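Researcher: Next entry in the queue.
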Amino acid sequence: MRSSIQSSLLLVASLSASMVEAERVLGAYIFARHGDRTAKIFGNTQLTDLGYNEVFDAGSFYNERYILSSSDKHIEGISSLIVNAQQISASAPADAVLQNSATGFLQGTLANSTTVVSPLRGYQLIQVTSTSSDADSEDATWLQGSSDCQKATVSSNNYYISDSYNSMLKSTKDFYESLSPMLNSTFTSSEMSFKNAYTIFDYLNVGQIHNSTTDSPALKDLTDDVYAQLIQLASNQQFNLAYNETDTVRAIDGAVLAGQILSGLNETIATDGKKSKLGVQFGSYGTFMSFFGLVQLPAASVDFTGIADYASSMVLELVTNATGTGFPSEDDISVRFMFHNGTITGSAEPTVFPLFGQSNDLLPWSDFKSGIEKIAVTSDDDWCNMCGNTDGKCASSTASTNADSSSSSGSNSSGMSHAVAGVIGAMVTLAVILGLEALFFLVGGFRIAKRSKAVSEMAVAAAAAEEKKS
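Model: Structure for this entry, 470 residues:
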C-alpha cells in the first residue's frame, strides 16, 4: 500500500515537473536568404526553379515547426489553416529574386495538400511588403556598393586600401590566374584577382550547380579543393566588406535588420501575443554577415564569417516556461537564436547558438533587448545620423533638426511666434518685390499689368506655409 502511494506521489511530482518545464513558443522572427539563382555577372538575375523549390522546402519546415497545431513548437494562438494577416508579417526588397523567394517560402508555410481542398492546392495570398531594393538588389555584384548609406560605402571601400586586402591580393595572384581556362570567356585577365573574389566564386558556383563537365569541359578544373578555396576567399573578402569591429557603420544593413527584429518581437510582447506572432523577412548574404558580426556570432563559430548558402535561414524564438495559458510577463520570456546553412530538408534542424559572446543558449528578454538596442537602427533619424546623409529621406530630417535649433533661439530672443514672424516676413518680402518691380518697370519703360493680385496671393501662401511650420 505504502509502495503504491509513493509511486503515485512520484508520478504526480513527475507530471508537475514536466508541466513546469514545458516550453511554450510565443512568437518567432525568421530572416532567410533567397534560393538558387542565375549568376550576378550577367545581370537581370532570376530565381531558378531549383531556387523556388529550395525556399519552399525551407518554408515547409517552419510550417511544421510553428504553424501545425500538432507541433510541440507550435506558436501559441497562431492560425493553423487560414492565414490571419495580423499574425504574420512578411517583407522583402523590391527585387525579383528576393520577392519570388519570399512568395515560395510563404507557400511552404501553408502547404498541406492532404487536408486542404481549396483551389491551387491550398494556395493563400500573403502580402509581401516591398522595401528599398538599393541595399539588397541581387543585380549588384557587391551589395554594399549600391547602398545609399554614405558612411557605410566609404567604410567598405576603405577595406580596398587596407594592408589585409593588399596582402590577400598579392598572395592569391597565381591562384586566380590559374583559373583562366574557366573564366576567360567572361572575365578579362585583369579581372581575375582577389578584387573580384565573390563575383568569380558566384559565376563558378552557378556553373557547377547547373552544368556538368560534359556541358562545360572547362569545369573539370573546378575540383573540390579549388571550390573550397574559392568560397573561403570570397567569404574572407565579403565579411570584411560587410563588418568591421572598429567601424560598425559598415554593418548598416545588419543594424537595420536588428531594429526590425526588435520591433517585431516587441510587438508580439506589447500586444500579449495578439499580433505579430511570426515575422518573415528575406535579404542578402551581406545582411547575414553584417548581423552576425554585430551580435558577435563569430565568437560562437568561425563559420559565421562565411557566405550563407542559398535558402539559409536564421530564427529568433520568443519562449517561456511559465505555466498556464495566459501571456507571461516579460520577466518570464527568453530569446533563442538558431541558424541553418542552406535549405532545410529531411530531419535537419537549425542549430542553436549563443548571442553577444555569451555562453547561454537562452537569453532573458531584458538581456536580449538591451544587447540588440546597442546595435539596432530603429528609425529614419537613426539611419540618417549614422550614415551622415542629408539628401533624400534625410533632407526632411536635417531640415527639421535645423528648424528646431533655430526655433528655440528665435522664439526666446524675440518672443514672436513663427506664424506672426512668417506673416511679417512675407509682407516685407512683398514690399521689396513690389519696390524692385516698380523700379524695373520705370527704368525699362515697361507698363504694369494686373500682377498685384498674383503677388498678394503669393504672400498669403507664404504666410500660411510659415504658420503650418510652427
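Model: The chain has a mean pLDDT of 79.
Researcher: Noted, moving on.
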